[in-house]
Amino acid sequence: MAFDDAVRNSYQADIQAIKAAGLFKEERYIHSPQHSEIEVEFPLGSGLRKCINVCANNYLGLSSHPDVIAAAHAGLDSRGYGMSSVRFICGTQDMHRELEHRLTAFLGAEDTLLFPSCMDANAGFFEACLNERDVMIADRLVHASIIDGMRLCKAMQDTFKHSDMEHLEEKLIEHQDKRLRMIVTDGVFSMDGDTAKLDRIVELAEKYNAMVFLDDSHATGFIGRTGRGTHEHCGVLGKIDVITTTLGKALGGASGGCVSGRRELVEMCRQRARPYLFSNAVAPVIVAGALKVMDLITASTDRRDKLEWNARYWRGLLKEAGFDIKEGDSPIVPVMLYDAKLAQDFARDLFDEGVYAVGFFFPVVPKGQARIRTQMSAAHEKHHLDSAIAAFRKVGRKHGILGLSKKELIAMCAV
Ligand SMILES: *Cc1c(COP(=O)(O)O)cnc(C)c1O
């Protein structure tokens, strides 16, 4: 069938419906490296505006760290630009294996396999390791890439209510007849910033003979005393069977992900995981940069400590100003607005005040749960946060939402 007018009109109607629902997403153009302050062009053709960035996953401020950039340059010079191959054909360099060893040691695992992204790690893991005699029991708020990975796997899928350990226990009892049970969770949940009850999950896994899968993308490098992740924070280092995580957030923020865990599970991924077998190897320049990141985060906890301080300070500022935030102790601090249009207007007004943040709404979060997700970074200095809160207060006053409860916010948007 040709892409005729009828087909085009049908897509245009879909796009129009997205716009009418207030759910249309637009890109902003950044002309600078990723950092606490960035230069943004929006809309296209307007001038550049200097903004404080409070929405990057640049948790440790390593995305444009001079040592990481220098190491990436050296990697480019010594190993070239691209691999032009998947890993198992001719895409594996000594550096790939070295990075896998470093990640294994850092995460407290037995082995690690790099993937082009954590999305790919999640897309490939389940199908490679589980079959129709098994069951995956996932927290209802796990990341979209885990949901996609589970869809590709023949094992039975089930869920438990978010962080509800009694419900998880019921499910584990219900599924005792399966060959293998795998509990599936994020470490820090990306939209709410809360942390999985991993100590309880491990206890239940031991009691009911299940494996534990942890996606620690929003934790690796900074959660836990030495930044190893949610399993360190919860005192269960070495007890997690599979950890997937990303190089695209705290660990330099370029791209790449991994499956790390029990030797046999990682080996199954090397033999069978389709994104590993059929997608290109992580570029040498990124591997070299990531190796430097591993040096930096194992040598000192200064950055993770500063991030923790910033997160606590920022939460305090938002609360004092009268915003409705989600409780937690991660550097993800959602400012709840509930209404998609309000979240978009709020973000636009913040931008006019020199603060870069975006509104999150359906389908990224459930309907009626729109918010501005703010994220702290070790790259922020106190003066950045003091300037940012002044902008938040000003915009909050403009929209008349300071000091309002959840109920009042929802009622306000309904009219
Ligand atoms: C960001 C994220 C991913 C995707 O990571 P990429 O490496 O960018 O594909 C997967 N899982 C979780 C929980 C994430 O937050």
Describe the structure in your own words.
With 415 residues, this protein is of the alpha/beta class. Strand 1 and strand 2 (37-41) form a beta hairpin. The chain is 44% helix and 16% strand. Strands 4-10-9-8-7-5-6 form a seven-stranded mixed beta sheet, with helices on both faces. The chain has a four-stranded mixed beta sheet with strand order 1-2-3-12. It has helices spanning 5-20, 66-79, 87-90, 94-107, 118-129, 144-151, 165-174, 198-207, 230-233, 263-272, 274-278, 284-299, 302-321, 340-352, 382-398, 406-414; strands at residues 29-30, 37-41, 48-53, 111-115, 135-139, 156-160, 181-186, 211-215, 242-246, 257-261, 332-338, 355-356, 359-360, 370-375. The chain has 16 helices and 14 strands. The chain is globular and about 55 Å long. The protein folds into two domains: 24-53 and 301-414, Aspartate Aminotransferase, domain 1 (Alpha-Beta Complex); 66-299, Type I PLP-dependent aspartate aminotransferase-like (Major domain) (Aspartate Aminotransferase, domain 2), CATH 3.40.640.10. 48% of the residues are buried. The mean pLDDT is 96. Bound molecules: pyridoxal-5'-phosphate (PLP).
